[in-house]
Amino acid sequence: MPAPLSSLGATRSDIRARHALLTPESHEWIRLPDWPGAELAVLVSPDMGARLSLSLLRCPEPVAAPPAGAGIARFVFCLEGRAHLPDGTVLMPEDFAFQPPGCGAGLAADAGSRLAVFEWPFAARGPVPAALSGRLDDCPGRPIHGDDWVEVRKMLPEDPAFDFEVNVMSFRPGASLPYVETHFMEHGLLMLDGGGVYRLDDRWYPVQAGDAIWMGPHVPQWFGALGRGPARYLICKNFNRGPMAPRG
């Protein structure tokens, strides 16, 4: 059997000044004191120019993590297994939780669980919103620009107290974003299902489930779904704050 291309120095990952594609064959799984019991692949971080982080967690043993650091908000999306919040809420696959800075709430997870975790410096605008949790299926789907082949489900309220948006975008086979977007918000993204082609700046990347993307501010971006099945991705962006608002 031929050796996998990753063992010969090949990867689909591509890290650039204004965007990045992070693919599973290049993930480095580490342990950190802030997540005892977990293994993390930190895919997006400020070290690459981002002002947010996206990490994948896998739990070879039960995990009990403390709250996020001072001034840091956290959003957790359960991919597999079960996670537990201090109020007794159990997150099952495709459940989510928002933990605002200063809430004092940590997180636990069962062995065998997998989670996607976004963290970012929270930009307060009045009182900080309370912690919340929910199920993706309970979030209504909305067509994008009238196209019912492209749907968005928003998991955080549009209330101006929130400075972040986390959504799941769904595309029927052959559907695409209606135009190339350019804006001052940055994104972190994780492909959940299916695949397609993602344009970032002047490059087009084949993408599939398990891939992650960072898009910096003002990066031209577009996605088209390919294949026989639908494509879905989890995506975040800074929200409800203008370009001159202070951010971490």
Please give the CATH class of the largest domain.
Answer: Mainly Beta
Number of domains: 2
User: Which bin fits the share of residues in helices?
Assistant: under 10%
* C-alpha-based Rg, rounded: 18 Å
Poorly predicted spans? none
Please report the distance between the alpha carbons of the first and last residues: 48 Å
Total helices: the number is 0
The CATH topology assignment of the largest domain is Jelly Rolls
- List the helices and strands in order: EEEEEEEEEEEEEEEEEEEEE
Class derived from helix and strand content? mainly beta
How many strand segments? 21
Spatially, the strands of the biggest sheet line up as 1-2-19-16-21-15-14-13
Outline the biggest β-sheet.
8 strands, antiparallel
Q: What number is the mean pLDDT? A: 95
Strand content: 35-45%
The CATH architecture of the largest domain can be named as Sandwich
Global outline: globular
Determine the CATH superfamily of the largest domain: Jelly Rolls
Briefly say what this structure is.
The protein has 248 residues and is an all-beta fold. It has strands at residues 14-15, 19-22, 39-44, 53-58, 63-65, 72-80, 83-84, 90-91, 95-99, 107-109, 114-121, 132-135, 141-144, 147-154, 164-171, 187-193, 195-200, 203-208, 212-215, 221-226, 231-238.
